[in-house]
Write a structure and sequence with these properties.
Length: 218
């Protein structure tokens, strides 16, 4: 049984400390953004892994059960570029650096309960994007790429505290097919030679922004 000891965490949305009140009493579900596996793990990654492992251990001491999930992004532009640079298959790149990542976790003594991979959740990603399109938050470009229409969501930027839209990430190569420069890709039309999955919008692949949204929800 968990104790009545009050645990407070800094809440980025409200910019203040708040008492930790799990949705299910005594059970904390913690999703941590994991690596995009296109290069070796560095000390910045290690800091993230250790910090959240330490938080989990502390919560365990306080009597909470913790489900610790950390994703592996194993399809991404950076992986595709690294594969081209090294003249290797993109799957080989992803597997090589995933192996390095897991070895680092082991050496640091970090234990993660679940490691969902993007490539294992493409079906759910497609369904999630289809839902956003149906609700009017996303649109399909002529190329078959799907973009999130930022202006349709009034609170966008509230979490980061960045509301200057001109400073938001803009992929110059794709400006011609976006409604606004700051709309971001949920699903990317595959170029010749790139990996792809069949979808309602053609042969394409997930965009970096949607992957953790889907896996954390699942």
């Amino acid at each position: 049984m968990y104790s009545n000891y009050v645990v407070k965490l800094y809440d980025t949305l409200s910019r203040r400390e708040k008492e930790l009140i799990p949705v299910e009493p005594g059970l904390v579900k913690m999703y941590v953004c994991g690596p995009t596996v296109y290069d070796y793990t560095h000390i910045g990654h290690g800091r993230t892994y250790v910090v959240y492992d330490s938080l989990k251990r502390y919560l365990n001491i306080r009597g909470y059960n913790v489900v610790h999930v950390m994703n592996i992004t194993d399809i991404d532009d950076k992986i595709i570029r690294r594969a081209a640079e090294e003249n290797k298959d993109w799957k080989e790149i992803a597997e090589d650096y995933t192996r390095d990542y897991l070895e680092v976790l082991n050496s640091l003594g970090v234990r993660v309960d679940h490691h969902p991979r993007v490539t294992d959740h493409v079906k759910e990603i497609i369904e999630f994007i289809q839902g956003l399109i149906e609700r009017g938050y996303a649109y399909v470009a002529p190329s078959g790429s799907v973009y999130f229409e930022v202006d349709k969501y009034d609170d966008y930027g509230k979490l980061s505290g960045r509301f200057e839209k001109d400073l938001w990430n803009q992929e110059a190569e794709f400006l011609h097919e976006k409604k606004k420069p700051y709309d971001f890709a949920l699903w990317k039309s595959a170029k010749p030679g790139e990996p792809y999955w069949d979808s309602p919008w053609g042969k394409s692949r997930p965009g970096w922004h949607i992957e953790c949204s889907v896996m954390s929800s699942r």
